[in-house]
Structures are given as C-alpha cells and as structure tokens.
Amino acid sequence: MKTRNYLFLSALCALMSFSFVACDDDDDNKQDEGVPTGVVTDVKFTDTDKNASKIGGTLSWTAPTSVEDITKYVLYLSSDGNGKDTKLGETAVGTNSFTVPDDTDFASYILVIAANAKGESNAIAKVQVTDFTEEPVPVLPGVYFMNSGKWQSNNATLDYYDPNTKELKTKVFASVNGRGLGDTANDIMVYGSKMYIAVSESNTIEITDATAKSLKTISPKDDSGQPQSPRYLAAYEGKVYVTLFDGHLAEIDTTSMEITKKTKVGPNPYQVREVGGKLYVANSGGYNPVKDSTLSVVDPVSFTEEKKIVVGLNPMYMNADSDGELYVVCGGNFADVKASLRRVDLKAGTSTSLYTNDNIMMGMAADKLYVIQSENDANWLPINTQFVSYDAKSDTETSKNFITDGTVVDGAYSLNVNPATGDIYIGTSDYVSTGDMFIFSAEGKKINQLAVSGLNPMGVGFLK
C-alpha cells in the first residue's frame, strides 16, 4: 500500500527571554515555574489507517538538545493546532516515537509537549494530519479481440485481454463453447450483459454472456429461406440492430434474443448508427457495378425507412459526435474515386470531405476522431501512412501523428477507441499470418502489443 509522508516543521517556541517570546498556552502568558523549557522538533506522522475520518500510524519527533528537565512527552489531538482536545497518551523521555492506534478519530493536528513532575511545557510542537483513505486501484473492464479470419476458411477466433494483468487468453470462444466461432467474423458489440458477434459467411449472429459462453445463435433468413449475411451491429433503447447484406436492417429483442422486425434499406449495407433517435444505415452497394452513395434514415418506432441522404461513393463506416454530426468513411470505387472521410450535417443533409486517400479507417471517443490513412503502392500495399487526430468540437486537426512515442505500426487493419478510457486499439494484418493488437493510451504512448490468435483482427468488444 502506498502511503504519503507529510513533513511539517514544528512550531519552535523556545522560551528564551533574551531572544524571543515563547508560544504560551496559559491565559496569563507566563511560563509556569519548573516546567520544561525545551521543545521537540521535526515532528512527523504517517497515517496508515485506510478508513475515512480515522487515523493510525507512527508519530515521531526529534528530542530537544537538552532533556535534563524532561521526564516524558504528552501527546494530544487538536482541531486547531493549539487546543488540547483529546489526550492520545504519554511516552517516557528517550523514546521519540508513539504508535497512534488505528481507528483513532481524525483530528487536524497532533501535539507533542515536553513535561515533567511540575507540569507540561507551554511550548507546543505539532504536525498537521492528512487523513489517508486508500485509493482503490482502478479495475479496468476486460476487452475482447475479434479476429475475422480468412474468408471461407472458417477460422474466426475470439481472444480476451485483461488490461489489469496484461494477460491475453486466446481462442476463448472455442474454449468455452467447444466449437469455432465460424467463417469471417465481421463485427462485435457489448450491450448490457450480453455480447453480439456478426459472422458474415456463416450467416449467424452469436449472442454470448460476458464470458463468451453462447446463449443463442441466430441465423437470419429471408422470406424464401435464403440466408441473410449479417454485417454490423448497433444498439438503442433495449434493442440491437444488425445490417443484413441483402439490403435489410433487422431488430433483435435483447430479452427473447429473436429477430422481431426487418425493414428494407439500400443495397449491401455496412454500419448502422443511432443519432438523435434515428437509425442511419450506410448503403455501400458493394456488389453493384456502380456503388451506392446514400445513408438510409430509419425510424426505430415504425421501423421504416423515412428518407435517404446522399454522401460519398460507397459509404461504409460511421461515428457520431456529441453535436449530432455523423462522420462517414466512404470507400470510393477502388479505381478512379478514392476513399474519403466526410462530415455529414444530418439536419441539412449535406456533407463535407475532411480527408481523401486510397485507404481510410477511423475510431472515435469523446469527440476526438482518430484517422489512419494511407496510399497504395503498385502492389496495393499501404505506403505513406498517417495517424491523424481531429477534434470534432472545433473541427480542427490536432495532430499529424497521434502515436507520440515513436512506435512504428505497419499493416494497420482496424482502429477502435475505448469510450471509457480513451485507449486506442490498432489491429494489424498481412492477410497471411496472425496479426498483432497494439494498444496506446489516449496520449499516444504504447501500453501493449499482443500477438492475437487469428488473422485480421477486426473488432474490439469493450466490457463495461
């Protein structure tokens, strides 16, 4: 346990008439005849009692140069540093410390006064007391890493990271459930006491408890019985929403763990976000020769699409700030139209481009936007990568590199920000071997680098 030492210079009140007047606690300001004239110095006290308004610990002091007329020291608790409110005890001369019992009522000062058979000195030495209440070590909630795996290889995995012990447990879903997670895990979200994982090629939504134990597996199908590939998740007012890549948005009741509603949106929807009581769905049109450029606006009560908002080509990923503006990463067409990050004014239905590049990913927490952008070389490998931070409140770029300690991150594949701590999680991938998860503090200092169990670390689930 960490304690705090407080050193206070004693009030030195040497009763030497030729030099200065002593601190006198008699009403008539006269030194009683025969009582000690010496005063202790260097009084120290360390409170080690962990309870509020209680003290305990070792009181110590340095004896006067001469102790000929001193037989003992008397100790008092004092509220103002002068009055002898409560007697703590006595100790014989030659002993320069005293143990204050735990659970002693707090007082602002402890007095140490020399005494003999004639009485107590009028000179008072004192130390100010600070009540030490043990600060609980913050227990950080656990974090799940969802590794997408290789497409059509049925090798998605889930790892669990304890930020308190820095321990990583790999393949926890398989360990807890005795089976694999499935083919191409696409998104993960913690909501309430449950965790939701969309597995796109297996056409399943896994609902688990906080230990990753499966509670229900949902397999959405259309009216003809064809599987509907789930992609991305969001939650709002007790419901979970999932985009289905055949052009639908589904509502999941979190109690029954059943899909209760579906509505038609645009083609091949990616992320869904709630802003101002409406659901916004990014319609990528990813399978179309010409990509889509719209966001569907869905009323969660009627569960119908109200309108569409035109943004950039191939909208995919979204985050909202506290002012109700939406930030949308549009993928472009991977040819003559580059990717862009756009700020969307939802009221006006207009958007402004903030960044344009071959590759863009983003994460957001507390109105701070983090952007990783890069160009492609001739082999479609990322080059000239930038790690940019942007303040959504002031609409200004705050840094060209939010990694401040010089750490090099190659092959950035995913970017997530813990809303509780501001820690930044960057997953890396070369599409061939298992990836790494880099963890940085909100100040851009590396906290950890972990080798995850699967390919393509894509999602992070933050327990609360």
What does it look like?
- Pfam families: DUF5074.
- This protein has 464 residues and is mostly beta strands.
- It folds into 2 domains: 6-128, Sandwich (Immunoglobulin-like), CATH 2.60.40; 143-462, YVTN repeat-like/Quinoprotein amine dehydrogenase (Methylamine Dehydrogenase, Chain H).
- It has 1 helix and 37 strands.
- It has one helix at 172-177; strands at 6-7, 41-47, 54-62, 72-78, 86-92, 97-105, 109-116, 119-120, 125-128, 143-147, 157-162, 167-169, 185-191, 194-199, 204-208, 214-218, 230-236, 239-244, 248-253, 258-264, 269-275, 278-283, 294-299, 304-310, 315-320, 326-330, 339-345, 350-357, 359-365, 368-376, 382-391, 396-399, 412-417, 424-428, 436-440, 446-451, 457-462.
- Strands 4, 5, 7, 8 and 9 form a 5-stranded antiparallel β-sheet that branches.
- Residues 1-30 have low confidence and may be disordered.
